[in-house]
Amino acid sequence: GSVPATMLTYYVAAFSGDSWLTYYNLLVETSQVASMLFLFAIGFTQIALLNIMTGVFVENALKCAQPDRNTLALDQRREHRKDAAELSALLAHIDKDCSGTISW
Question: Rounded to an integer, what distance in angstroms lies between the CA atom of residue 73 and that of residue 70?
Fold first, then answer.
């Protein structure tokens, strides 16, 4: 066969367009080394493809899981307001005579 035909056969076998076992059985009859190289190439392609796809999905999931800057700033602002309200309440409780000052 020609190189383009070989490349097409490999592509079809690697990406489940056709069973790679059919091509493996043909290669075993011709060369044990060629059949082992074919198995290695198919396995490597499948693992590489799965790793790439998994990486894309995980990266997108992590991006979606992180809050954006505006949400973080809003949460921090709410926390500061809550702390300020608690401090004001504490100081009002300490100011027994309502003079606006605290003394010992």
Answer: 5
Question: Which two three-digit tokens encode residue 5?
Answer: 């035909």
**Sequential DSSP letters for 62-97:** HHHHSPPHHHHHHHHHHHHHHHHHHHHHHHHHH-TT
Return the closest-CA partner of residue 35 out of 49, 21, 16, 14.
21
**pTM score of the predicted model:** 0.50
Per-residue buried b or exposed e for 57-77, using 16+ beta carbons within 10 Å of the residue's own CB? eeeeeeeeeeeeeeeeeeeee
pLDDT at 58 over 90: yes
